[in-house]
Design a protein that fits this description.
The protein is of the alpha/beta class. It is built from nine helices and eight strands.
């Protein structure tokens, strides 16, 4: 490579670094009425169709996730009329009417990337590892030997007792940091080089400026990958704080080990929100109630408002969305 080309590559890399770092800053005094920093939000109701997700005593995860997702989308549209909300599904189907779970997950990610989303929010419900309703716990309390001679062997002694569905609360997941290579690939492949930075500026033409296999392009991808991880963690933390403020039990923000396809394969900040445990009958009632769903929606929307403002966006027009100080729905 000639000295001139090396100098041009260095200048391009410096420009990328300056650009990516520019949308990390917080604008604390953005005038009300300014357009939202976010332009497109993808809402992904978990499961659907043949994939019901976890089940409670009287409801299934796919239905609860869809109900909350539709409420959330409507609330975002009312608060930010200039933000486009795109759902991966709006009825009880596998997204895209895909025949397999893997194909459905790929469809969700591809839809998000083609739609040039600025934020991906997956809505789910949790379970404690046991079917809803009565179950029996078998606990090893010792061992004993049975049989004679060569057949003599050691076996466990169990104590059995009725189990309790005591686990409840929320968890907000981001993708596992050590799986970031998958995220980088999604960023590179998205929209023929177009990557959203939530700044209101569309970054088209990058694929023409760089050979996508060049060191410069790989550096650019790594910078976006880190930025998207930071922004995902920021939004997840804001959602978690809103849940806590409303009185919900919280298992915090976590990096998810399994079931993270939609978080890895989307070239944008992305989170997966477990809104509660359907295996716990009290939480199942809460998540199926209008009050409970409205509160979960309000929590996520309040977090999104803060996130948008921290990215440099303005307050919602009229700020007419529900306030986090509203009386919490019960039970928690």
């Amino acid at each position: 490579m000639s000295m001139k080309k090396k100098r041009m590559a260095l200048l391009l890399l410096c420009g990328i670094c300056c650009f990516v770092s520019s949308f990390d800053s917080v604008t604390p005094h953005t005038p009300a009425g300014k357009k939202a920093r976010l332009r497109t939000v993808i809402i992904d109701p978990g499961h659907g169709g043949f994939d019901t997700g976890t089940k409670g005593l009287f409801s299934k995860e796919a239905d609860v996730a869809l109900a909350i997702s539709l409420k959330l989308g409507k609330a975002i549209e009312e608060a930010y009329p200039d933000v486009k909300v795109i759902y991966t599904r709006t009825t009880d189907i596998m997204p895209g009417n895909m025949p397999t779970l893997a194909a459905g997950l790929n469809y969700r990610a591809e839809l998000a990337n083609k739609s040039k989303g600025d934020l991906f929010i997956a809505i789910h419900c949790d379970n404690d590892g046991h079917p809803a309703g009565p179950f029996t716990v078998h606990k090893v309390i010792g061992h004993k030997y049975v049989g004679k001679g060569r057949r003599r062997h050691r076996v466990p002694i169990y104590e059995s007792y009725p189990g309790q569905h005591n686990r409840k609360g929320t968890t907000v997941f981001v993708w596992k940091a050590d799986r970031s290579g998958f995220k980088g690939q999604a960023i590179s492949e998205r929209g023929e080089g177009e990557v959203s930075d939530s700044s209101g500026e569309s970054q088209t033409g990058d694929s023409a400026a760089f050979d996508m296999n060049s060191p410069e392009a790989k550096m650019r991808t790594r910078l976006y990958e880190k930025k998207f991880f930071d922004n995902s963690t920021l939004f997840a933390s804001l959602v978690n704080e809103e849940f806590i403020k409303s009185g919900r039990v919280s298992e915090g923000v976590q990096q998810r080990d399994v079931g993270i396809r939609v978080l890895q394969a989307t070239g944008m900040p992305s989170v997966l929100i477990e809104t509660g445990f359907l295996s716990n009958v009290e939480e199942e009632k809460y998540l199926n109630s209008e009050e409970g769903q409205d509160e979960v929606t309000r929590n996520i929307l309040n977090a999104l408002k803060q996130y948008n403002t921290m990215l440099g966006g303005g307050a919602p027009q009229g700020d007419t969305s529900p306030d986090s100080s509203a009386t919490p729905a019960q039970p928690k």
